[in-house]
């Protein structure tokens, strides 16, 4: 009986102390004018609840406090915005003190010249250099032929195989980008480069929280990548050969290159190109294969579009710009896949000064989590939102709506949007015109904090 009383006493004491600590932490953030919400534990905040409950955490907090509330979920005090109009305002007003809010550890890994790390005139310079590499003219003349050549070879010899489409699309996204960046050397450096790149991606795509141990792991991968790219640049400079690829353009010193960059800036741009498109291209491609498998009517319509293109061509004739522009239903499938799977949950901003937003005070240095996930499932914006219905996107007006934030918004809208669509479209073209497939294994998919198949997504492929 005495032991039981001691256990009960300890339990009551721990409960009282926990309540006191929680209350003390809430008092710390009871500044007049702050948005409603809870802050959880000191240091850790509500991150555990956020990870455990996923989107339900956001829904529950919105039910209690509305679409604009405070929390402590991403390593520091954070205001979460789930209002479509307010989200658009935040994304469109970087000049008013709403700069990118990613943790310093993540920016260190991606590089100080990474487009997510800079703002103001530097961002304008780096974005200009990036857009020059992936403009419609560059896609049409330089990049699409490389993409087509790569996809044609990559998707050969899949007949009568069981493959993990998750691994295949990851490999595809990386190697396709590498070929566009350094076409001549892509094959020779891929084996050394790819594992280091995957290490870099592994930590930064989980959640944007400063974790020293994982940061050290990724920083080592970055150092290895810097060495590989530095040697590649040095070798090209010594050879004095001209190359018609992204790296060749970045290294040009003539008047045709308006954005002359240092070697460090060139390397950070290459990492930006590889990193920014990798997750979206690979995951969207995997999920498109999944959704097409589950929706035969959609697959039939998509295959009809691509068979029509093939019928107009010789067997060895590549996909060209006009073919790409004619893939209207393919574009709709890509948008619907991105919406329903929600590849990106939201974006982060940080305040550079205390400001008022939505009637509430946001202190300097707080993050704003522009949480766009729930917009994708709003029945007023997307009728029957849980249905996979690419036909909804055949009305081009839907793509131009203010709440369309699948690719970000404002000056930070994904600059590689059209390039990514070109890669996924070309992948789907050769996949659906060559093969049919069925799932094996029945693996489960995770949708949060990122879309992935923990045990892979295996399919049995056969000739069409």
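^ Assign residues to that structure.
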């Amino acid at each position: 009986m005495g032991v039981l009383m001691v256990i009960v006493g300890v339990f009551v004491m721990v409960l009282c102390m926990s309540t006191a600590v929680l209350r003390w932490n809430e008092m710390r953030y009871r500044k007049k004018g702050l948005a409603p919400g809870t802050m959880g534990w000191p240091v850790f905040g509500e991150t555990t609840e956020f990870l455990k409950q996923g989107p339900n955490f956001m829904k529950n907090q919105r039910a209690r406090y509305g679409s604009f509330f405070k929390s402590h979920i991403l390593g520091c005090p954070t205001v979460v915005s789930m209002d479509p109009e307010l989200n658009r305002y935040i994304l469109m007003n970087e000049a008013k003190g709403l700069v990118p809010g990613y943790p310093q550890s993540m920016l260190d890994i991606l590089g100080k010249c990474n487009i997510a790390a800079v703002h103001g005139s530097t961002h304008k310079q780096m974005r200009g250099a990036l857009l020059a590499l992936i403009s419609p003219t560059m896609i049409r003349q330089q990049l699409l032929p490389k993409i087509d050549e790569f996809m044609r070879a990559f998707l050969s010899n899949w007949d009568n195989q069981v493959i993990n489409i998750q691994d295949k699309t990851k490999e595809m996204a990386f190697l396709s980008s590498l070929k566009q960046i350094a076409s001549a050397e892509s094959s020779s450096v891929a084996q050394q480069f790819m594992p280091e790149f995957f290490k870099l991606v592994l930590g930064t795509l989980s959640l944007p929280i400063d974790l020293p141990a994982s940061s050290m792991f990724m920083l080592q991968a970055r150092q290895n990548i810097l060495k590989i790219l530095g040697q590649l640049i040095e070798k090209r400079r010594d050879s004095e050969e001209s190359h018609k690829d992204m790296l060749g353009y970045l290294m040009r010193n003539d008047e045709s290159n308006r954005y002359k960059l240092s070697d460090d800036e060139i390397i950070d741009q290459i990492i930006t190109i590889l990193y920014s498109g990798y997750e979206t291209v690979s995951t969207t491609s995997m999920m498109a294969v999944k959704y097409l498998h589950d929706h035969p009517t959609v697959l039939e319509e998509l295959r009809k579009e691509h068979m029509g293109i093939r019928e107009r061509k010789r067997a060895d004739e590549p996909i060209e710009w006009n073919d790409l522009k004619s893939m209207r239903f393919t574009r709709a499938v890509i948008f619907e896949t991105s919406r329903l799977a929600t590849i990106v949950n939201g974006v982060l901003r940080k305040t550079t000064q205390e400001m008022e937003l939505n009637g509430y005070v946001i202190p300097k240095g707080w993050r704003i989590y522009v949480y766009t996930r729930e917009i994708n499932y709003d029945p007023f914006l997307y009728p029957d939102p849980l249905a996979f219905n690419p036909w909804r996107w055949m009305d081009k007006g839907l793509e131009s709506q203010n709440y369309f934030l699948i690719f970000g918004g404002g000056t930070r809208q994904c600059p590689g949007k059209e390039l990514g669509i070109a890669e996924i479209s070309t992948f789907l073209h050769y996949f659906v015109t060559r093969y049919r497939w069925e799932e094996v294994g029945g693996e489960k998919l995770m949708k949060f904090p990122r879309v992935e198949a923990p045990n892979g997504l295996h399919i049995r492929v056969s000739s069409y």
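DSSP finds 16 helices and ten strands in the chain.
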